[in-house]
TrEMBL record:
<dbReference type="InterPro" id="IPR037237">
    <property type="entry name" value="IlvD/EDD_N"/>
</dbReference>
<dbReference type="GO" id="GO:0046872">
    <property type="term" value="F:metal ion binding"/>
</dbReference>
<keyword id="KW-0004">4Fe-4S</keyword>
<keyword id="KW-0119">Carbohydrate metabolism</keyword>
<dbReference type="InterPro" id="IPR004786">
    <property type="entry name" value="6-phosphgluc_deHydtase"/>
</dbReference>
<feature type="binding site">
    <location>
        <position position="223"/>
    </location>
    <ligand>
        <name>[4Fe-4S] cluster</name>
    </ligand>
</feature>
<dbReference type="GO" id="GO:0004456">
    <property type="term" value="F:phosphogluconate dehydratase activity"/>
</dbReference>
<keyword id="KW-0408">Iron</keyword>
<dbReference type="GO" id="GO:0009255">
    <property type="term" value="P:Entner-Doudoroff pathway through 6-phosphogluconate"/>
</dbReference>
<feature type="domain" description="Dihydroxy-acid/6-phosphogluconate dehydratase C-terminal">
    <location>
        <begin position="408"/>
        <end position="601"/>
    </location>
</feature>
<keyword id="KW-0456">Lyase</keyword>
<dbReference type="Pfam" id="PF24877">
    <property type="entry name" value="ILV_EDD_C"/>
</dbReference>
<dbReference type="GO" id="GO:0051539">
    <property type="term" value="F:4 iron, 4 sulfur cluster binding"/>
</dbReference>
<comment type="similarity">
    <text>Belongs to the IlvD/Edd family.</text>
</comment>
<protein>
    <recommendedName>
        <fullName>Phosphogluconate dehydratase</fullName>
        <ecNumber>4.2.1.12</ecNumber>
    </recommendedName>
</protein>
<keyword id="KW-0311">Gluconate utilization</keyword>
<dbReference type="InterPro" id="IPR056740">
    <property type="entry name" value="ILV_EDD_C"/>
</dbReference>
Length: 604
């Protein structure tokens, strides 16, 4: 398959930029592979501790060091709907491992917090940094050197990026990511959004809002909108770390359980003990990373991945930049309309042809690298197949649809919803920022209006309730970056700004914080770097300054003479209150050492 010249050029540029760091990384995992699984080198007391709780059959197998041992890293808890289905997965995986002649052990559990629960609360200030905690916790689980491969059970926003960062740190080990799937469809997303706006306007009460939210988030599985959690699943599949077609099968179904068994057996098949050794550090190369960015743009995925993909790539020695995202976006068409980029949810996307059709279309247009390594043992063309349960109860894969089953949800390249992916980098005297315009109407792609400056989303909400936000304006919310308060999502702003836009006002958001992965119709220049807490020029913006946010030209400017703007003192903010309560005091080291958003906003 012929690759698009622009995609090839960007891949080559990333490869050249990463040459030194990638070579060092591959050298490390080669040395780890040469050392081999260290179970045979453990002292007898070490090894006895490692299998003390196993059953007799598994214990005997591990004593001999001749069968593969599969480590399970799980993000199970029963408070998160997305992760609750994982409760029974270890037993399914252990049984599948025995059938394949191996052993499986839960190597460790990692924390999994829910941004849906913590939105607008103090706990959200731990959210982004939980990615790095998850990576560290995974490292602890795998540090026992008992495993030939690992399976990773995780779904949501920071969990999958954290798991992948750790998996790449143990890059000599094969790894398969095992999803749990989305919940069945509940209240339509557009109806839910309207109710949220009515609540923001004070037209309905909390009881009505809670009833609507409960009808939307109603059972086990991921939330069905296309936020960060479901973008994670798309990425794991298009980057070759899921089994084909595994991403969006609902929980607690025969197909879901069959895919989990197959994932365990596949992980055991690709260890160094067999003939198909496939370490994850070789799967995730420059081509796989570019494929991930292509998928992100083609589906209108979460802006959070302009942070996470950068951090994940760096874990493999690959240097990915925001400019790569923007330039890939320029040539990748938008093929999916899933809320907030449309009315459909991920179940509708899956029913319309899902990942198999999406990958087929992108491969056909030369927008994906087909010649990659995957856990499935094929190039990416193997991911145009769909899994199914045959009449005899066995799991099999058949070629997926060659045409979309609903072009309002999933379009072929020739009928793309828009010619570009919608992720843009904005540059100017405020700094560098990211904006997602796939859900923003074209007449809102350029906003020029006076600034209204706030230092929290609560302050903006209070101004709205006081009736002070009539007219056009650009909301500038600063001191929301990783060093200020952990970079919480500012999702509470979405209904408020949506109300003001629906009233006919031209509004936009500029912030050094994050928006939800489900950010939508209001233009939002986010992740402004450098952040205010690091002395970024966003700290010089004043109320009334005219700001021009131009998605067409890719600029973000305060229309103030340069001499005047540069001479202004930076705003100051007392951040002491962000350091305590809800566990925030435990994360002082993270805030003090966090990288900029453009470098992934983490400490690893």
């Amino acid at each position: 398959m012929t690759i698009h010249p622009k995609i090839e050029a960007i891949t080559d540029r990333i490869r050249a930029r990463s040459e030194t760091s990638r070579a060092a990384y591959l050298g490390r995992i080669a040395a780890a592979r040469e050392a081999g699984v260290r179970r045979a080198h453990l002292a007898c007391g070490n090894l006895a501790h490692g299998f003390a709780a196993c059953g007799g059959e598994d214990k005997a197998a591990l004593k001999g060091d001749v069968v593969p041992n599969l480590g399970i890293i799980t993000a199970y808890n029963d408070m998160l709907s997305a992760h609750q289905p994982y409760e029974g997965y270890p037993e399914i995986i252990r049984a599948a491992a025995r059938e394949a002649g191996g052993v499986a052990q839960v190597a460790g559990g990692v924390p999994a917090m829910c941004d849906g629960v913590t939105q607008g609360q103090a706990g959200m200030e731990l959210s982004l940094f939980s990615r790095d905690v998850i990576a560290m916790a995974t490292g602890i689980g795998l540090s026992h050197a008992m495993f030939d491969a690992a399976v990773y059970l995780g779904i949501c926003d920071k969990i999958v990026p954290g798991l992948l960062i750790a998996a790449l740190t143990f890059g000599h080990l094969p790894a398969v990511f095992v999803p749990a799937g989305p919940m069945t469809s509940g209240m339509p997303n557009d109806e839910k959004a309207k109710i949220r706006q009515l609540y923001a306007e004070g037209k309905i009460g909390r009881d009505a809002l809670l009833e609507a939210e409960s009808a939307s988030y109603h059972g086990p599985g991921t939330c069905t909108f296309y936020g960060t959690a479901n973008t994670n699943q798309m990425l794991m599949e298009i980057m070759g770390l899921h089994l084909p077609g595994a991403s969006f099968v609902n929980p607690n179904t025969p197909l879901r359980d069959a895919l989990t068994r197959a994932a365990a057996k596949r992980a055991l098949a690709i260890t160094a003990l067999g003939n198909e050794y496939t370490p994850i550090g070789e799967i995730i190369d420059e081509r796989a990373v570019v494929n991930g960015v292509v998928g992100l743009n083609a589906t209108g995925g979460s802006t959070n991945h302009t942070l996470h993909l950068v951090a994940m790539a760096r874990a493999a020695g690959i240097v990915l930049t925001w400019d790569d995202f923007s330039e890939i976006s320029d040539v990748v068409p938008l093929l999916a309309r899933v809320y907030p980029n449309g009315l459909a949810d991920v179940n509708h996307f899956h029913a319309a042809g899902g990942m198999a059709f999406l990958i087929r279309e992108l491969l056909g247009a030369g927008l994906l690298h087909e010649d990659v390594t995957t856990v499935w043992g094929t190039g990416l063309s193997g991911y145009t197949a769909e899994p199914r349960i045959e009449a005899d109860g066995t799991l099999a894969w058949r070629e997926g649809p060659v045409a979309s089953l609903d072009e309002k949800v999933l379009a072929p390249v020739g009928k793309a919803f828009q010619p570009t992916g919608g992720l843009k980098v904005l540059k100017g005297n405020v700094g560098r920022a990211v904006i997602k315009i796939s859900a923003v109407k074209p007449d809102r792609h350029v906003i020029e209006a006076p600034a209204k400056v706030f230092h929290s989303q609560d302050a903006l909400q209070a101004a709205f309730k006081r009736g002070e936000l009539d007219g056009d304006f650009v909301a500038v919310i600063r001191f929301q970056g990783p060093r200020a308060n952990g970079m919480p999502e500012l999702h509470k702003l979405t209904p408020t700004l949506g109300v003001l836009q629906d009233r006919g006002h031209r509004v936009a958001l500029v912030t050094d914080g994050r928006m939800s992965g489900a950010s939508g119709k209001v233009p939002a220049a986010i992740h402004v770097s450098p952040e205010a807490a690091s002395g970024g020029p966003i700290g010089r913006v004043r109320d009334g300054d005219l700001i021009r946010l131009d998605c067409v030209a890719g600029t973000l400017e305060v229309l103030v003479p340069a001499e005047e703007f540069d001479a202004r003192p930076l705003a100051e903010q007392d951040l002491a209150a962000n350091g305590f309560g809800t566990g925030r005091e435990l994360f002082a080291m993270f805030r003090g050492n966090a990288a900029s958003a453009e470098l992934g906003a983490g400490v690893l």
